[in-house]
Structure formats: C-alpha cells, structure tokens
Amino acid sequence: MPKNRLEAFSDGVLAIVITIMVLELKVPHGKSELVDLLPIWPIFLGYLLSFIYVAIYWNNHHHLLQVVKQVNGPILWANMHLLFWLSLLPFATSWMGDNPMAQMPVALYGFILLMAGLAYYILTKTLLSHHGDQSELARAIGNDFKGKISIIVYAFALPISFFYPLLAIIAYFLVALLWLVPDKRMEKVLKS
User: Fold this and answer.
1) How far apart are CA 25 and CA 56, in angstroms?
2) What is the pLDDT of residues 135-161, one digit of tens each?
3) How far is the C-alpha of 131 from the C-alpha of 150, rounded, in Å?
4) What's this model's pTM, rounded to 2 decimal places?
C-alpha cells in the first residue's frame, strides 16, 4: 500500500505533540519584566529539549520514508508504536519542568526517550524486513551507529536518573546534540 497516509498521519500527530507542549508554557505573572521569566526557566528548557527531540524524530522519519516505496500492516503498527511513545513526551516534559531535578520525572522522561528510540529501531527493522537487505533503505541505514548508541545512552542514563538526575538530563542533551548533526545517509542514497 502507498506510504502517503502514514506520512500525513505521522506529521499530524507530531504537530499536535508540539502544540500540546507549547501550551504548557504558561505566561508568568509579575511586573512584565525579564526577571519574571526566571521561575519558568526549567519548564522552558524541558520544552526546548522535547521540541528538539520531536524535530529530530520528524526529520529522521521524513528521511526514512523518502527511500521507502510502500508500507504494509506491520509497518503501520510499528509506526503507531513510535507515535505512542512520542505522544507521551508532553506529559513527561511538563512533569519534569514542574519538578526540575526530581528523580521520578527525569526517570520517566528518560524511559519515554528509551522507548521512543526502541520504537524507531523497530520501525526501521520492520521497514527493512519489508524492503529487503538490498534495498535503498538498507544501503542508507547502514550499521545505524547513532541509533544504537542513542539507545545505549538512554539505557545507562535511566538508572543514573534515580541517583543523579542532572547527569541523566545532560545525557539526554548529549544524545540530542548527536542527532542535531545532519544525517546525510538517506540523501546520499536518493542522489545516487
């Protein structure tokens, strides 16, 4: 079946996720001065990190589907699995922003990142299974170093969040920075 409905639905869900997150940013009450924003800086930093993650997933999802010709039922379910975990980001972002450096909110945030990373990996493997080892997709994915290292960092950061929440948050930022470097694998395959 064609991939266009999967792409459109995914784009819509991710747009809603970003909208929900930005609606959690409440205007501070005060004298309308810059200093009035200080109490909400943890909420804004949480939003910024989550926005970056949603942008990373949207960009990679977009590139992934550019080299895909068609989808099937298992691919649709794997995509829904990914969207489920990403749809939980606004809740975890809000909880972590309201409780900066608290163990459970930081751990939940990391758990959702871990599960989203695993879901993206499953989606990729499901697409590879459908398109084959010799497909453009297989050539573009390669060994998927960044995807695997991200999951490993999340898995290590999760237990650390119970003892050193700040260290876990730094790990989440480092993974985001890793993905901010544009991934040219898909574009190279499409050009060739």
Assistant:
1) 21
2) 888 888 888 899 999 999 999 999 999
3) 24
4) 0.92
Tokens of 70: 């068609």
**Phi and psi, residue 182, nearest 5°:** -55, 135
Give the chain's length.
192
Look at residues 63, 67, 75 and name the one whose alpha carbon lies nearest to residue 5.
Answer: 75
* Token pair listed for 14: 């991710």
Alpha-carbon distance of 148 to 150, in angstroms, equals 5
Number of domains in the chain: 1
3-state secondary structure of 42: helix
Per the structure block, which two tokens stand in for 156?
């290590």
Q: Residue 129 belongs to what domain range? A: 4-191
What does the pLDDT look like over 162-175, one tens digit per residue? 999 999 999 999 99
Distance of alpha carbon 60 from the chain centroid: 9
